[in-house]
Design brief:
Layout lengths: L1 E4 L1 E5 L2 E5 L10 E5 L7 E7 L4 E7 L1 E8 L13 E6 L4 E5 L3 E7 L5 E6 L3 H5 L3 E2 L19
Antiparallel strand pairs: 1-9, 2-3, 4-11, 5-10, 5-12, 6-9, 6-11, 7-8, 7-10
């Protein structure tokens, strides 16, 4: 996983948030996710060939990722990397191909922009789903005072 840092500028007109170092040349499509509540868990989705880039446009989310060792029968003991990403810190979290990810909104109304390196047709052939409880106990309260 990689963090692409950005920043923000605020004046009397409002706030401008940016991630100028995010290179869109790898992006083929994008979509936005807004869970219906903070109880909803979207996990685990993985891709052998597709990179994902996450940007929070509103609120905050917990994003977890694991590097999958076997796509047909993954180990239940994989190391979970956990990151909290927030709207007040302009950053893009890149999850490379070979990983599965899961998300949970930490605030009502949180919105996540997802940029993908594959077209929808290519992504369909590279989509792996695993049980949401396989690698992480989502009922655990998780906070990250540093946030991303």
């Amino acid at each position: 996983m990689k963090i692409i840092n950005g920043g923000s500028y605020k004046d009397e007109r409002g706030t401008l948030r940016f991630v100028n170092d995010f290179d869109f040349s790898d992006v083929k499509r994008f979509y936005q996710i807004e869970n219906s509540s903070t109880d909803v868990i979207r996990a685990w989705q993985g891709h052998r060939k597709e990179n994902k880039y996450f940007y929070v446009s509103s609120g905050s989310l917990l994003v977890c990722a694991v590097q999958v060792d076997n796509w047909d029968n993954p180990s239940p003991d994989l190391c979970v990397v956990k990151k909290v990403i927030t709207e007040d810190k302009s950053k893009v979290l890149m999850i490379p191909a070979g990983y599965a990810n899961g998300i949970r909104a930490l605030e009502e109304g949180s919105k996540l922009m997802v940029f993908s390196s594959n077209t929808l047709i290519d992504a369909t052939d590279d989509d792996y789903r695993f049980d949401k409880d396989l690698w992480y106990d989502w009922s655990t309260e998780y906070t990250d005072e540093h946030g991303l």
